[in-house]
Amino acid sequence: MTSTATASFTVDQWEPQATDEFAGNELGRVAIAKTFTGAVEGTSKVELLTVNNATSRAYVGFERLEVSVDGRKGSFVLHHTADEESGMTVQILTGSGAGELAGIAGTAEIEIDGDDHRLTLTYTL
After folding, report:
1. Range of 104's domain?
2. Do the beta carbons of residue 77 and residue 63 sit within 8 Å?
3. CATH of residue 68
4. Predicted local distance difference test score (pLDDT) of residue 84
5. How many whole angstroms separate alpha carbon 24 and alpha carbon 91?
């Protein structure tokens, strides 16, 4: 059975670091920490690799969540990919669930509207 869990989150840390620049492309790394409240409750740490140039930008990243989802405590990893043409895709990494979240699978949607940040997990357990 597929379930949906929605939470608000705050970004507690955002530490960008430029790592390389060549031919108008800037590569970077961003360390992020978040706190979730709602049907997803807990914290996460995110590592992003980014690239920006005059016409596009993209990133890939992994987010380790230590949370409860609908009251089940555990952890799992979200795999992020995004670019200007395809938009953002966020999936639960297969096999990454632990604790009461072992076996979790599915996708996530992240919405940002000004200072309001929301995560919606669509998952199976």
Report:
1. 3-124
2. yes
3. 2.40.350.10
4. 83
5. 30
